[in-house]
Structure formats: structure tokens, C-alpha cells
Amino acid sequence: MRRRSSRSSVDQSADIDMTPMLDIVFIMLIFFIVTTSFVKESGIDVNRPSAKTAETKEQGNIIVGIKPNGDIWIDKRQVDIRAVRANVARLHAENPLGSVVIAADREAKTYVLVQVMDQIRLAGIMNASIATQSESQ
Q1: Are both 67 and 100 inside the same structural domain?
Q2: Does residue 63 lie in a domain region?
Q3: DSSP character for 43?
Q4: Does residue 43 lie within any of the structural domains?
Q5: How many Å is the Cα radius of gyration of the chain?
Q6: Which domain holds residue 10?
Q7: What is the pLDDT along the chain (137 residues), one digit of tens a residue?
């Protein structure tokens, strides 16, 4: 009988406590979630116009894409011109420090670009930028 009692005490002490490891994993998960910068993409590829005075903007978190046929894309979804204001306001409320960048195709109509800029300003954002590519000199 002594052997049985000694075996059961060995089996009980061989358990590994997983709580500290899970605590570390959750702390790392929270750290990565907090430090991640979320960039809202437009969801389309456009041929941007070139400009000699193009500047690099590091933090453009809301990207509004305009295709050559006039389709408007925000956050990988096609939206109507009437929904641009609400979508931009919602995305800006999620990240108030982010700016808005309009990525219009070089073949896009100017009136669509002006309508999009107007909707962005009606959403309360006055510092919207237009994406270009720098010319090689």
C-alpha cells in the first residue's frame, strides 16, 4: 500500500501550472493590439497622376479611391457619393489623429474628385490630401 500512496503523490506534483504562460500571452496580445496602426485602404489600385512637388505623408489613415469610371471606394467597399460623408466621419471618429488621402486615378473625372472633396469637408475634415506619385527628374 505504501507504493500506491507514493505514486499518487508523485502524479499530483507533476502538474504544470499554465496560468503564468497564459498571462504573458494575453499581455503580449494586448500590447500588439494597442501599438498597431490600422490603415484603412480604399481597396482598389489606381494610376495616380505625377507631380514635381509631391511630398511623402507618413500618416494617411483613411484612403478614398476614385476609379476612372467614377466609382468611389472606401475601406475595400464601393460607396455612393452620398455615403462618402458618413463613411469618412465614422472612420475619422475611430482615429481622430489620422488624415484623409484621396487616391484618384489620373483618368478620373474632375467633378467626381470635387464632389468627394466636398463630402470630406462636410464631414468636418479640412486637411484632405490628394495622392500623387513623384516625377523622376
Answers
A1: yes
A2: yes
A3: S
A4: no
A5: 26
A6: 2-35
A7: 455 555 555 555 667 778 888 899 999 988 888 777 665 555 566 666 666 565 666 565 788 999 999 899 998 899 999 999 999 999 888 888 878 888 888 888 889 999 999 999 999 888 888 887 766 54
